[in-house]
Predict the 3D structure of the following.
Amino acid sequence: MAGERKYISAKELKQHDKPEDLWISIQGKVYNATDWAKVHSGENIPLLNLVGQDVTDAFIAYHPGVAWQYLDKFFTGYYLKDFKVSEVSKDFRKLATLENLLMNFQNLGCLRRKAMKSYTPVLSLDSCTWCVFMVFCVLRVLGFIWSSCVGHDSRHYQIMSSLGFNKLAQILVGNCIIGISIAWWKWTHNAHHIACNSLDYDPNLQHILVFSVSSNLFNSIKSIFYGRILKFDSVARFLVSYQLCTFLLLFSRRNIPDRALNIMGICVFWTWYPLLVSCLPNYGERVMLVLMSMAMTSIQHIQFTLNHFLANVNLEHNLFPRLPRCHLRSISSLAKDLCKKHNLPYRGLLFWEANVTTIRALRNTALQARDLTNLVPKNLVWETAMIHG
């Protein structure tokens, strides 16, 4: 019959798992995303990580509702024969609906009204001189720009309704003011969200040769993200052994979107920052300014480290990456109930406990690397069990 549906099994879908033959399933319908992967706004890595399987939950988590209307052009005409929705996925999709409600609530302007109220007492301080007031305003604006809410949420396309203004905020905050390439951040961060804390897929954990968060990396596993083997050789053993007191900046050459804007933004940063330092009267004050700026941002880096390795509201953020950070607390209790219902571990640590746990894990890995009885592997050993935090 002409209107009869065509079906393929999950096993048959899995055979289309290559960059040149990239099929996925959403809500039981099979799509060919081979050509779309090349222009996907979230890069092609997230699609390659999920190729050949049902990606409904990931699609719901990372895309706004308007994205559904663009799927039909990639429909293959096939449906997934053995398509089933687990109880965990059903509950997650209910929470995803709540996420959209929270975002709509934000768009009503409630947060803006609250922000205006917070400034009212400041504006009413008649004793404040204009000079002090202007300095306060400048520092306040810089504080907002440097905050993780603007820097992080804008890269998830959440703080503005216009993608153009959002991209401008990304380049301004990331490249121009902080000095970090927003294109590089989005490239790695999207892959991180798709496979959080997976040694094979998550680039946030793949820092061999100089840094290791798990002794499983000593087996020279293959990075799906970088497409090569992460070799653990004698040099890596030495550097990892002292990873608590060493670091190295890594650079790569690749095709990136908005290359000119990213380069221009980095150039802006390396123009205004050295100029600011050079305006100080002597070398002592210049060194102090650089050290103080590093000391202040190090507090935020501690928070970033704890978010990626341990907890805070990172679980909620990875469940709903499009949800602004200010709403994560409101959905935290629901995420805990979801974990409890399906017997999934949900671990929360205090700030100092999280720091101690992170440092202890790095120390244990370093000590294992120093153990010369653990021979450096001569060939690739695939890890069958991936670590999830």
Summary: The mean pLDDT is 72.
